[in-house]
Amino acid sequence: MATELRLLGDVEVLVDGRRLDVGHARQRCVLVALLADVNQPVPAEQLIDRVWAGDPPHRVRNALAGYLSRLRALFAGSDEVTITREPGGYMLSTDPSAVDLHRFRRLVADARSSAEPARAADLFDEALSLWRGELCTTLDTPWVNELRTALEVERLSIVSERNDAALNAGRHAELLADLVAASRAHPLDERLAGQLMLAQYGSGRQAEALDTYRRTRQRLVDELGVDPSPTLRAAYQRILDGDSDRAPATPAVGAQGIPPADSLPRRVTSFIGRRQELAHIAAALGQGPLLTLTGVGGAGKTRLALEAATRHKARFGDGVWWCELAALADDAAVGHAVAGALRLQQRQGLDIDATVIEYLATRELLLVIDNCEHLLDAAAQLIDRIVARCPGVTVLATSREALGVAGERIMPVPPLPPDEASALFADRARAGRPDFDLDREPVGAVAEICRQLDGLPLAIELAAARIRVMGSLDLARRLDGLRLLSGGARGASPRQQSLAATIDWSYRLLSESEQQLFARLSVFAGGFDLAGAHGVCAEDAAGEEDTLALLTGLVEKSIVVLRPGTGWTRYSLLETLRAYGRNLLRENAIEQVYARRHAVYFTGLAERAAAGMHTVDEGAWVDRMLPDYDNLRVAFDRAMADGDVDLAMRLVTSLSEFGHLRVGYEASEWAERAFAVTGPDHPLFAAAVGFAARGAWNRGEDNRVRSLAALAGGRSPQRGNGRVAYPGDVLADVALYEGRPDVALAHYTAEMERARREADPIRLVWTLFYVAICYAALRTPEAGLHAAQEAVQVADTTANPTARSMAGYALGLVLKKCEPEQALALFDEAAQSAASVRNFWWQGIAMMEAAATRAVHGDSARAAGEFIAVLEHWDRVGDWSQQWLNLRYVTRLLVRLGATEDAAALHCALVKAGKPSPLTDTAVADLGRPAADGLSGVDAVKRAYSALARYR
């Protein structure tokens, strides 16, 4: 007997094609409330709220019981549908595919996972064909109305995804009529307009496609006062470029017309089950700005978020970005962690949170923030600002409790059902015993293991690691005995008890040496490598091979997770296991001992890295240090908490070049904390002051720059200090940017001579670079030629990539007017050299000068494309002093290209910001463009991008 349960239209129940009478409106509403959560218990209070809202009748529970009784009688003739009373409430049980809503979502999930556009389009069409009209039109309660609205949004989102898939499959003509009608109904929908443009273009109607863009752009300006989004502009540009594949721009390009970024961690194990949860996430990501996955430790929240983000990254034009908070201990570090995940540096004049908000305000991306629970208030505050001010950003968070942010949708992550739990156990067991066959195991043994572990993925994986040394039946018996013996923590939920019991049991099965290493490894934040594990955790007499042997055993037993990477193999502990290990250290009163060893180890590592930054191995040291930034933060906090000022000063002054140029400005704030508790007589005082002053300079805090740098009393750091952290240099840079290059030149000339006397090649290249820059700023670049040439010679002797980049840039700058071709080659080489060691600041200025030189002496179209890349680069690096300079160059190019309206707009933005413009108000008037109100910096960048995109 075939039963169909329909919600996508009016409420209907069909048995063998025959429609049954569901009853009056209240009874139909009870049925809808159960079907929406099919196979899940719905508490009676929730049912009452869904059906009666705030106006329940007298003896409402009796009325509810009556409706449920009549519904049971309705399905009495069917063995496919049952309504039962469960501990958690009332539950309607049936095959989910019998309910059109859940069949719709299953088909959508299948379409999204299909690698074939044609197949995906067919599945989307099949899913959409299940809709028979507006949902539940005869019902009118607040809950039903909310459900109806949410499902309509979900349907429209799927229609857009279907359009993308069909366009990718080349079905342009088939879609054209529907897209024309939809665009008329929603004339301000930019995604729809982009799809219509591509369908018109693919059908041979290029003129109509361009006209669609012009009409949409005009409507956006007239009705909303905004320019087209980056994705719509990208679609327009592809049509202008005659893109032969004609694929839709929406899922394929980012905000700057490049493939969307992906910072997701590598998935090192297969993903089992969670089909329903993935479908719910897929729908929720299109329905609101924030979805929080909640659940106990070990429930699989992180793995589920990673899987969902991986599957849906094509939906977000600017990609998917992953931020891990587990390693953080301080609320103040949350903003820095998000900025680091976005590869974003703090902007001048803004704190780190404001930097993140400003950057995300114009992006269309998915931001995954993992493990929020221990920093809940700080994470919630930042996410609340993102949700409120960044309309194109969707946040997917994981936490053991909800964030409490407006607009938050909460999805509890339940334990795995029995079949998925058994499948997970079998998959993980085969990793250690390839011959493991679930069908050959004693009947019910694996199911009993999973039942005892409450379906918690972490507990199941830990237990499965033991299948190498005992059979599943023995494992089931031992787990049962453990639970009876342990019982878990008093007052803990059964799930928490089983997880704690499983971890405790796994720990007790380790050898004594493995137990010791596991507990000590918990002092690391974010991960570690073999050298770190040995340096912090090993016994004095042990060799690195001994540590590797123990570490290998922990990996094999699923206690430690292997994180393979490029060049450096890293390991980590799951956060639940790390917390267990820290408790062991506290119980044995040795937590402080190993926290201290951790701080000492990473201080020594930072000092070696600081020296390595000035050698040919600069790139290797950058790659080595970047994954350990969380460990460096923890080490600094430990040194400060212990009152070990010397250790804190050694650590922070070793980070100026690595942290400042690659990560952000957070470490310069540590420098202020460090020197504030020491005196000016400390040998590293000038270095710490210089680092703090450089941070203030980059943040645009000009007054603080002077006051901080003055603390050094004219002293310079010792040889080998980070290039960016000399107090006198920072003051000279202030003078240079304030239009006093003569002051800067006098300083750098004196420092150049001192570097020669001290035979310090790295410092000599730095000062020669600035001498050449100062002469260029004085409009006498030829006077700086000798300094630039010497810088190249000295840099070559060091083979240091940053030194070579600086020297090449300096030579290009003094040659760009008289020998532009040679200058272009030098700029390109300088940018590549800096990029090879992730020195983003030097890479950016080389890219910018190359684009500016090509704009004058080379290909204007190529220059336009390069300026777009520079706009994006400075936007991410966060240096507005360089971005304003870039906008000056762009203004000049736009005048040459005849884009006088755009050039005039950028001129006014520069004037409003107090920056020099290449134009005058008179020149703007001569162009026939009167001066207008100046745009903000962000809007000026958007205007520049929009204008350049027409010419590249």
Descriptive overview:
- With 952 residues, this protein is mainly alpha-helical.
- Among the domains are: 3-116, Orthogonal Bundle (Arc Repressor Mutant, subunit A), CATH 1.10.10; 121-241, Alpha Horseshoe (Serine Threonine Protein Phosphatase 5, Tetratricopeptide repeat), CATH 1.25.40.10; 275-412, P-loop containing nucleotide triphosphate hydrolases (Rossmann fold, 3-Layer(aba) Sandwich); 418-508; 841-952, Alpha Horseshoe (Serine Threonine Protein Phosphatase 5, Tetratricopeptide repeat), CATH 1.25.40.
- It is 60% helix and 6% strand.
- The protein contains 44 helices and 13 strands.
- It has a 5-stranded parallel β-sheet, sandwiched between helices. The chain has a 3-stranded antiparallel β-sheet with strand order 1-2-3, with no helix packed on it. A 3-stranded antiparallel β-sheet has the order 11-13-12.
- The protein is globular and about 100 Å long.
- The protein starts with a strand and ends with a helix.
Would you kindly provide a brief summary of this structure?
By secondary structure, the protein is mostly helical.
End-to-end separation in angstroms reads 64 Å
Q: CATH superfamily of the domain at 275-412, please?
A: P-loop containing nucleotide triphosphate hydrolases
Query: Radius of gyration, Cα only, in angstroms?
Result: 32 Å
Going across the biggest sheet, name each strand in turn.
Answer: 7-8-9-6-10
According to CATH, what is the topology of the domain at 275-412? Rossmann fold
Report the portion of residues in β strands. 5-15%
Largest sheet composition: 5 strands, parallel
SS field, number of helical segments: 44
CATH-defined architecture of the domain at 275-412: 3-Layer(aba) Sandwich
- Basic shape: globular
Mean of all residue-level pLDDT scores: 84
Sequence stretches where pLDDT stays below 50 over 5 or more residues: 244-260, 481-493
Query: How helix-rich are the residues, as a percent range?
Result: 55-70%
| Structural class by sheet pairing and helices | mainly alpha
Number of strands: 13
CATH class (first level) name of the domain at 275-412: Alpha Beta
GO biological process, one term: regulation of DNA-templated transcription
Keywords: DNA-binding
DNA-binding region: 1-94
InterPro entries: BTAD, HTH_77, OmpR/PhoB-type_DNA-bd, P-loop_NTPase, Sig_transdc_resp-reg_C-effctor, TPR-like_helical_dom_sf, WH-like_DNA-bd_sf
